Amino acid sequence: MENTAVREVNESSLNKALIAVFVCFGLNGLVFASWAARIPAAAQDLGIGAAGVGLLLLFSAIGSVAALPLAGSVAQRIGTAGTVRAGGITTSAASLAIAAGLYLGSIPLTGAGLLVFGVGIAGWDVAMNLEGADVERRLGRNIMPRFHGAFSAGSFTGAMIGALLSFAGVSLSLHLLAILTVVCVIVLIVPRNFLQLPHQPEGAPGGAAPGPVSRFGAWREGRTLLIGVVVLGAALTEGAANDWVAKATVDGLGTTESVGAVMFAVFVAAMTLTRWFGAKLIDRMGRVRALRICMSASLAGLLLFVLAPNLWMAGTGAVLWGIGAALGFPMGMSAAGEDPAHAPARISVVSTIGYTAFFLGPPVLGFLGELWGVRNALLVVGVAMLVSIVFAPAAAERKPVSETT
């Protein structure tokens, strides 16, 4: 009778954690897209071109890349819930600075806000992926793509809100102020349902559990680094689309800012649906085949988007690009988080490698876009896609040590 009660409580806690992780992923996507979908508006407010936008994005990249290697250790110290809260509040404060910078037309203030924005997003992201990996292990089935689908759904919602507000003539500053108010409230409440200790191993049969890998030790693991390389290509694929699809549509096809935001929303919608239903594809094919099929589709979509002579063909390319970009990052997180004893260090390493591309790639594309045009610069992403296809076997399924000893 006592054992049944314990099992019921555990199932209830797991279900609450499952919902909480979904909400945190969705909210993170909403915050990110609130900025990404209206990058053309920011460029107009500040009077800058593609290179200037690339420089601004570099500030966000520096903040994230600096914070990511430490995020796993922070989550071990204050818990995933505390880290998500800290990241959400930091991101909200940064959004306030960005809004003020755009209102005043100040590039330095906007850049400083984006630097802090990158720090907050990085900590929040690693913590929710750690919590998500723990929930996935306990459920015993692939659920990480759906968590990332919640991020994409939040991004889609943010992009559509951005398109509507742009059409209505609402300033980006006011838009960001409204978003940060919502974030501050939700991010303080929802993480209380987290399981809190994803870094603690369940315990191997016989009572022994392997000790955790240090955050520096994980950087010496060949498989972890190769998973990071796979995620690097997937992250650059997604990040380039997040930051440049809207502007590439406006500049390359001569459309309005609202149409650019809708094109970004089309990409995100395709990615969201694939993440929601793609877990079955992974179960059926395994990670390696699923990765290779997805990255190949993404490469085809990228080429079609860049070379399309009209809006409708570009939209078809954006759909294929979104479908292909959907599963690489979540599969990498699942692969890195398979062993609960090693998950914090390995997810931190893989996230750092992936987000280096996610955040640093788009600014570089901005500088190249100034020379070649934004759509042509996106062809560089195709090289990273090919690298991910080659190294996909590194993400093959393995059982944790605690389950095999």
TrEMBL record:
Membrane topology recorded in Swiss-Prot or TrEMBL: Multi-pass membrane protein
Record localization: Cell membrane
Residues passing through the membrane, by range: 17-36, 48-71, 83-103, 109-127, 147-166, 172-190, 224-241, 261-278, 290-312, 347-365, 377-396
Domain Major facilitator superfamily (MFS) profile residues, every copy: 17-400
Domain of life where this protein originates: Bacteria
UniProt-listed CDD domains: MFS_MosC_like
Entry-linked PROSITE patterns: MFS
GO molecular function: transmembrane transporter activity
Entries under InterPro entries matching the protein: MFS (IPR011701), MFS_dom (IPR020846), MFS_trans_sf (IPR036259), MFS_Transporter (IPR051788)
GO cellular component labels: plasma membrane
Keywords in alphabetical order: Membrane, Transmembrane, Transmembrane helix
Annotated PANTHER family: BYPASS OF STOP CODON PROTEIN 6 (PTHR23514), INNER MEMBRANE PROTEIN YBJJ (PTHR23514:SF13)
Protein name: MFS transporter
Naturally occurring in which organism (per UniProt): Arthrobacter zhangbolii
